[in-house]
Automatic annotation (TrEMBL):
InterPro entries: Flavoprotein-like_sf, FMN_Rdtase-like_dom, NAD(P)H-dep_reductase
Protein name per Swiss-Prot or TrEMBL: NADPH-dependent FMN reductase-like domain-containing protein
Organism phylogeny: Eukaryota, Metazoa, Ecdysozoa, Tardigrada, Eutardigrada
Molecular function terms, GO-annotated: FMN binding; oxidoreductase activity
Region (Disordered): 1-20
Compositionally skewed regions (Low complexity) per UniProt: 11-20
GO cellular component: cytosol
Positions of the NADPH-dependent FMN reductase-like domain: 65-212
Pfam families: FMN_red
Length: 256
């Protein structure tokens, strides 16, 4: 049954045997009909630009504090250009972006995660500093190449140092890349599991960048429109969840 929710419009059906109607929403489920089915497919749409609703929405949505984790320490890594792309993308949308680069932070392998110290005051100061940044973030973006069909060890290593509760009940968005044609999609699938374990809510829209060395310049500029479209979709989800979860955390706290 069609629900009445805010700004919506119709889209083309991917199935040519199905006609998509833009008339008011009545979905005819019809194995009995001899005519092709008419199906109302609805998608969320933002209010028209410059409308009062758009202005209210913009005013109600201050910039977010987003932490971006990079996942490579390799000499000649592509991670930096992907990180730059993500940073520019989010900054254009008025968000504050902090990049956590495992190469700069130089934490090495996980020797003792912060939450495994019997006396946390004995943990290195840097771990406390990063933990505070994680706790203060409204959301996360993780940037990973695909190494042997999975996420990179450098990304797991940096994130494993901190307790799931620090990441807890915040949204996470996945950005993967590879020099091949699949864009690190297998790493992305693994990341969904990993990010759930950290009690983040991962976004279904992801940025997956094939042939990263051609798709992005060293400065992080995209060479195709398709990347821009995927990025827009991911950002909108991240923003929606970040605001919704922040409100809920601030109002009702998190489960104990
Ligand atoms: C150890 C290692 C394993 C890799 N495994 C894969 C893989 O399974 N699938 C793939 O598409 N690319 C794979 N690649 C290629 C990387 O995706 C590509 O080199 C990418 O640029 C690596 O990211 P980085 O440059 O930021 O380190 C691998 C690269 C390395 C170094």
């Amino acid at each position: 049954m069609a629900r009445n929710v805010g700004y919506r419009n119709t889209v083309e059906s991917p199935d040519p045997s199905v006609q998509v109607s833009s008339s008011p929403a009545i979905a005819i489920s019809s194995t009995l009909c001899h005519r092709p089915q008419t199906v109302q497919i609805q998608v969320e749409q933002e209010p028209p630009q410059n409308s009062p609703a758009a202005a209210t929405m913009a005013a109600a949505r201050p910039g977010l504090n987003i932490l971006v984790f990079l996942g490579s320490v390799r000499e000649g890594r592509m991670a930096l250009r992907v990180g730059r792309y993500v940073q520019q993308l989010l900054e254009k949308r008025q968000h504050k972006v902090t990049i956590l680069d495992p190469k700069e932070l130089n934490l090495g392998e996980v020797e003792q995660p912060l939450h495994f110290y019997k006396d946390p005051s004995l943990a290195p100061v840097i771990l406390h500093q990063i933990n505070k940044q994680i706790q203060e973030a409204d959301g996360f973006v993780v940037v990973s190449a695909e190494y042997n069909s999975g996420m990179t060890p450098a990304l797991a290593s940096i994130m494993d140092n901190f307790p799931p509760v620090s990441y807890g009940y915040r949204p996470s968005a996945i950005v993967t890349y590879s020099m091949g044609q699949f864009g690190g999609i297998r790493a992305a699938m693994q990341l969904r599991q990993f990010l759930s374990e950290l009690t983040t809510v991962h976004m279904s829209s992801m940025i997956v960048i094939p042939k990263v060395h051609e798709s992005l310049s060293e400065e992080g500029s995209a060479t195709s429109d398709s990347l821009a479209r995927a990025s827009e979709a991911m950002c909108k989800q991240l923003e929606w969840y970040a605001h919704a979860l922040k409100t809920e955390r601030n109002t009702n706290g998190i489960p104990k």
